[in-house]
C-alpha cells in the first residue's frame, strides 16, 4: 500500500512513468534531474477548486474527439475522485480521452491516465491504431512546447550559417561529448542562425562552468564556442566578472523552469524540442518543422 500523496513517486519508482524530459542515449544528463522531476509533481496542500475552474475546462486545445452527452459530467466526477484519492498531487488539467471511461491528468509536464473511480492509474502510450497516431506523444509535445520568441536570445551565443534565415536554439555543455558531436554537425548547416545557451552540468563536468564564462567573455564568443566544442585548451574566467557578467546563472534557471536536464537540448522555431546529437538529416528535418499558423 502506498500513500496517496506519493502517487507519482510510486509510478516513477515502478518504472510506470517516465519523465517527459527523459533523454535519448545521445545526451549528457544531470544525474539529479530525475529526482527533481518527481518531486516537482507533489504539493503540500489539497486542491480545493472546482473542476469547472480547472484549466481542463478552459483549454484552447480540447480533445480531438467530439464531446457526447454526459461526458462533461463524467469528467467532473472522475476529477473529483482523483482529487479525493490523491490530494497532494498537483494536477494542472483534467481531460477526456477518446477511450470511454479513461481520463487524462496533466501533472507537471507529464500525463497519466485513470478510470472514473481513480482507483486505477497508469502511465504509458495511448495509441489510435485506426489513425496511426500516438495520442500521448502528441499531448506531451504540446506540454513541452516552448515559444521560441520567449527565449532570452540576448543571453545566447549567436552563430550564423549562410543567410541565417532559419533559427535553432541549443542548450549546450561544452564538455559533453554529445554536445561536441552536435557542434560538428551544426557546422554542416546552411542558412541557419544557431543560438547556443551555455548550460554547464557541473555535477558531471566540473570545469564546464569556467569554460562557459570564458566563452561568453571572449572577444568572439562564437569562435570561442566552436573551439571549446572541439576540445581545444582555453583560458578560463571567474564567474560574475564585473567587467563581463556571465549569463550562465540565468540559463541554469531557464533550464530548470522548462524542465531541461541534459545536453544537447534543441528547440526549433515551432517550439518543439528534442535531445541528443542528431545526425544531419534528422537535424534538418527538426529545424524545418513548420511554425503553427504558418
Write a brief caption for the model.
By secondary structure, this protein is α+β, with helices and mostly antiparallel strands. Helix content is 29%, strand content 18%. The strands form 4 sheets. A 5-stranded mixed β-sheet has the order 8-10-9-12-13. A 4-stranded antiparallel β-sheet has the order 2-3-4-5, with helices on both faces. A two-stranded antiparallel ribbon has the order 1-11.
Task: Please explain how this structure is put together.
The chain is α+β, with helices and mostly antiparallel strands and 294 residues long. The protein contains 9 helices and 13 strands. It has helices at 7-13, 33-39, 71-85, 135-144, 177-186, 208-217, 221-229, 248-257, 280-287; strands spanning 28-29, 93-96, 102-107, 110-115, 121-122, 127-128, 133-134, 157-161, 166-172, 192-198, 262-263, 265-268, 273-275. The strands form 4 sheets. A 5-stranded mixed sheet has the order 8-10-9-12-13. The protein has a 4-stranded antiparallel sheet with strand order 2-3-4-5, with helices on both faces. Helix 6 (208-217) packs antiparallel against helix 7 (221-229). The termini are far apart.
Descriptive tags:
alpha+beta; single chain; about 20% strand; elongated; about 290 residues; disordered N terminus; 5-stranded mixed sheet; 4-stranded antiparallel sheet; 9 helices
Strand percent estimate: 15-25%
Bulk shape: elongated
Find the count of extended strands (DSSP E, 2+ residues): 13
Can you give the helix content as a percent range? 25-40%
**How many individual helices?**
9
- The rounded distance between the terminal residues' Cα atoms is 51 Å
Stretches where pLDDT falls below 50 for ≥5 residues? Answer: 1-5, 12-23, 35-69
The Rg value, from CA coordinates, equals 21 Å
What's the average pLDDT? 81
Largest sheet features: 5 strands, mixed
H-E string? HEHHEEEEEEHEEHEHHHEEEH
Secondary-structure-derived class? alpha+beta
List the strand order in the largest sheet. 8-10-9-12-13
Amino acid at each position: 500500500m502506498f500513500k496517496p500523496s506519493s502517487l507519482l513517486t510510486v509510478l516513477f519508482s515502478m518504472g510506470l512513468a517516465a519523465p517527459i524530459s527523459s533523454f535519448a542515449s545521445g545526451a549528457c544528463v544531470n544525474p539529479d534531474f530525475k529526482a527533481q522531476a518527481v518531486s516537482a509533481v507533489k504539493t503540500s496542500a489539497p486542491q480545493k477548486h472546482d473542476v469547472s475552474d480547472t484549466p481542463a475546462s478552459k483549454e484552447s486545445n480540447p480533445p480531438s474527439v467530439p464531446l457526447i452527452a454526459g461526458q462533461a459530467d463524467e469528467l467532473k466526477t472522475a476529477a473529483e475522485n482523483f482529487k479525493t484519492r490523491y490530494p497532494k498531487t498537483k494536477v494542472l488539467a483534467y481531460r477526456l480521452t477518446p477511450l470511454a471511461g479513461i481520463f487524462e491528468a496533466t501533472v507537471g509536464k507529464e500525463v497519466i491516465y485513470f478510470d472514473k473511480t481513480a482507483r486505477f492509474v497508469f502511465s504509458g502510450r495511448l495509441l489510435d491504431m485506426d489513425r496511426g497516431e500516438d495520442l500521448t506523444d502528441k499531448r506531451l509535445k504540446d506540454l513541452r512546447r516552448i515559444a521560441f520568441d520567449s527565449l532570452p536570445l540576448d543571453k545566447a551565443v549567436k552563430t550564423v550559417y549562410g543567410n541565417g534565415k532559419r533559427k535553432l536554439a541549443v542548450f549546450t555543455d561544452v564538455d559533453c561529448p554529445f554536445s561536441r558531436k552536435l557542434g560538428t554537425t551544426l557546422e554542416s548547416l546552411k542558412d541557419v542562425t544557431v543560438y547556443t545557451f551555455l548550460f554547464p552540468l557541473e555535477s558531471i563536468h566540473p570545469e564546464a562552468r569556467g569554460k562557459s564564462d570564458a566563452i561568453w567573455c571572449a572577444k568572439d564568443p562564437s569562435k570561442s564556442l566552436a573551439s571549446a566544442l572541439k576540445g581545444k585548451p582555453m583560458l578560463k574566467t571567474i564567474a560574475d566578472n564585473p567587467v563581463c557578467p556571465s549569463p550562465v546563472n540565468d540559463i541554469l534557471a531557464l533550464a530548470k523552469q522548462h524542465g531541461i536536464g541534459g545536453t544537447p537540448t534543441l528547440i526549433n522555431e515551432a517550439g518543439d524540442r528534442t535531445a541528443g546529437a542528431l545526425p544531419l538529416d534528422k537535424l534538418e528535418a527538426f529545424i524545418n518543422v513548420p511554425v503553427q499558423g504558418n
